Amino acid sequence: QWGDEGKGKTVDYLTERADVVARYAGGNNAGHTVVVNGKKTVLHLIPCGILHPTTSCVIANGTVIDPGVLLQEIDRLAEAGCSVAGRLHISEAAHVIMPYHRVIDAAQDRMRGKNRVGTTGRGIGPVYADKAARTGIRFGDLLDRATFEEKLAFALEHANALLTKVYNESAIDFAAVRDEYLGYAERLRSHAADTVDLLHTAMAAGKKVIFEGAQGALLDLDHGTYPYVTSSTTMSGGVFGGAGVGPGQIQGVVGILKAYMTRVGEGPMPTELKDAAGERLREIGKEYGATTGRPRRCGWLDVVPLRRVIQLCGITSIVMTKLDVLTGFDRIPVCTAYELDGKRIDRFPGRISQLERVTPVYEDVPGWKEDLSRCESWDELPAAARSYVRRIETLLGAAISVVSVGPDRDQTLVRRDPFG
Questions:
Q1: Which residue from 91, 227, 303, 313 has the highest number of Cβ atoms inside 10 Å of its Cβ?
Q2: 277-288 pLDDT, tens digit each
Q3: Alpha carbon distance 39, 408 (integer Å)
Q4: DSSP E strands, 229-323
Q5: Could you confirm whether 220 is annotated as catalytic?
C-alpha cells in the first residue's frame, strides 16, 4: 500500500526463525513499530530482527543513514536491555544523510506550494539525489578523516550556494558538521562491514536471511503515484541492488497488507474516507505516523493498485494486519474497480491526472461485532472475519498466510507457512 501496514511487527515475527535480517532501502523516514508483551519499540533504521537476541542485523548498501538517529536508536535499545554489539553491521557503501539534506528537503517542499509532496523532512530525497549525482558521502567515508573532510568541503560548497541563493536559508558551517560527524564515526566504527560479503557468507553457510524493505509499494519512485512517492525503490526487486544478492537467491516474497487503506502526505487516494467511518478507523487503528506523528488518511481497502503490486513484486504470500480494527462495521466496502470518465476500468491508471479523477466501485462484505484481539487461532475468528479474508484472497489472486489481530507479537494467527 502506501506504507504503515505493520511491516515492523511482521518482520519481527518472521525473524524469530531467521539468522540474519537485512534492511536494503529507504532511511529514517520509515518507522517500524514492534510490540512485545505490551512494550512498544519504534525503529527507523535498525532492522526489526534486533529484538531477537541471536539475530544478526544488517543495514545494507541501498539504505541511507542518519547517524545521529541511528545512535539514538542504539542508545534506546541499550536502555531497554537490548545490546547491538557484534550483531549490527553497517555497509560502508551506504550513503549518509547530512544536515544540509534535511534543510534542503524542507525548503524544497515549502517552495512547491500547492504542489507540495508532503515529505517527512528527513533529507531522504536530497541524499538520494546526491547519490545519483555522484556527490554523496558514504558511511565508509566518515571513517577516514582526510577523505571525509575533502568530500564534505566539496558538498558544502554546492549545498550552501543552493541554501543561500535559492532557498534563502543560512549557510551551514563546515567545522561544526565535520566535528559532529567525526564523533558519530567513532561511535559507529565497530559496526562497519562489507555487508555484501557478510550476506553471501551467511547464505552459503545455509543460514536463513530475511530482507526487510521500507515504505509501501505505491510509494515506489518508478511505479508509485509519482510525484507523491519516496526517493528510492520500494519494490521487492530493490533487494538485488540494495543488498547485493541475485534473483536466484530469493526463495519467497511476503507482502504486508493492512485490512484497510491509509496514506500519509499528499497525493490521490481513491478510497479515502473524510467522514465518521474514516475517523473511526484512524482512532481505533491509532493511525498516526511512527516517524512524524502526522494523522494518516484512512479509507476502505482498494484491490485495484494491490493487484498491480502483486505483479510487480512477485509476491508469493501475504500477511494481513489490523483485521481487528474493522470490528463493529455492519458492512465493509472493498474497492474492486474504478470508474474513469464514465467507463469502468480494472487496471491502475498510470497517469496521476487519471487517478485523481477515478470513482471507486465498491463491493460490500458483511462485517462482524466480535472482538478479534483475543483469538488465538484462525478457527477462532468469527465466520464473517474469515469470509472477509477469503474474499480479499480471491480478489487479489494471492494467498493470505498470516493474519494479525492486534499489535503484540503474540496476536498473530498463522494459516500456513508464509514461505511455503
A1: 91
A2: 999 999 999 998
A3: 8
A4: 254-258, 261-263, 297-299, 317-321
A5: no
